[in-house]
């Protein structure tokens, strides 16, 4: 059966069509902090994880490595600019999957300015849950889009670094880098080797 140019799914069984349109794609971005796993639904970025990442996703057998899947080229370009100190706000198609409360917290994270930090308590107030700093911390910890949705910009009540999916060393390095770019202008992320 021939496929029509106007309908590429013409002749494709419903099961294969479902599989293709719902298949996760992945690739890697080599960052100064090590390889980052990028995950996509072929329309939007659904995950960005460090090599060692608490609450991170693991590649499954039904995923496909497709380096040029949407929006990977755009994501890699913007991550390269971020690590060069030239990009402070990401503009990417994102698809965040979580509870309503988690998505509310993740939305507020995107409003934290580059080079600034807020406390978990302040973030709880921003989501109109002033006594729910722990719940906010839990949502923050499950953020599937590290760096891009800047959960690293949330700190403990007295300025302490607490919890980060990629580890506290990575959180400290990201915060130090952003503060340095704000203070001194654009420069590359320091080589960690």
The CATH level-2 architecture of the largest domain is identified as Orthogonal Bundle
- Can you say what the CATH homologous superfamily of the largest domain is? Winged helix-like DNA-binding domain superfamily/Winged helix DNA-binding domain
Structural class: alpha/beta
Helical fraction equals 25-40%
CATH level 3 topology of the largest domain: Arc Repressor Mutant, subunit A
Euclidean distance between termini CA atoms: 55 Å
Q: Helical element count?
A: 6
- Name the beta content range: 5-15%
Largest sheet: 4 strands, mixed
**Unreliable runs:** 15-19
Query: What integer value in Å does the Rg equal?
Result: 18 Å
Number of domains: 2
Shape: globular
List how many beta strands DSSP finds.
6
H/E element sequence? HEEEEHHEHHEH
Major beta sheet, strand line-up: 3-2-1-4
Summarize the structure.
With about 190 residues, the protein is an alpha/beta fold.
Structure commentary:
The relative contact order is 0.15. The chain has 6 helices and 6 strands; from the N terminus they run H-E-E-E-E-H-H-E-H-H-E-H. It has helices at residues 14-22, 72-83, 100-109, 120-126, 133-141, 168-184; strands at residues 25-31, 34-40, 45-50, 64-65, 118-119, 154-155. Helix 3 crosses helix 5 and helix 4 (120-126) packs across helix 5. It folds into 2 domains: 14-83, Double Stranded RNA Binding Domain, CATH 3.30.160; 100-184, Arc Repressor Mutant, subunit A. Strands 3-2-1-4 form a 4-stranded mixed β-sheet, covered by helices on one side. A two-stranded parallel ribbon has the order 5-6. It is globular, with a radius of gyration of 18 Å. With 193 residues, it is α/β, with parallel strands linked by helices.
């Amino acid at each position: 059966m021939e496929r029509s140019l106007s309908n590429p799914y013409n002749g494709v069984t419903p099961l294969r069509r479902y599989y293709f349109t719902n298949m996760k794609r992945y690739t890697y971005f080599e960052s100064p902090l090590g390889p980052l796993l990028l995950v996509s639904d072929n329309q939007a970025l659904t995950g960005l994880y460090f090599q060692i990442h608490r609450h991170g996703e693991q590649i499954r057998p039904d995923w496909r490595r497709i380096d040029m899947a949407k929006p990977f080229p755009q994501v890699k370009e913007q991550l390269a600019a971020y690590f060069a100190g030239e990009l402070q706000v990401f503009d990417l198609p994102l698809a965040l999957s979580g509870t309503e409360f988690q998505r509310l917290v993740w939305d507020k994270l995107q409003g934290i300015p580059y080079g600034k930090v807020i406390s978990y308590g302040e973030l709880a107030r921003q989501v109109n849950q002033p006594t729910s700093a722990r719940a906010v911390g839990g949502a923050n910890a499950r953020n599937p889009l590290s760096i891009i949705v800047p959960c690293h910009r949330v700190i403990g009540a007295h300025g302490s670094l607490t919890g980060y999916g990629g580890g506290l060393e990575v959180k400290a390095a990201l915060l130090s880098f952003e503060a340095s770019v704000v203070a001194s202008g654009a420069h590359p992320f320091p080589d960690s080797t």
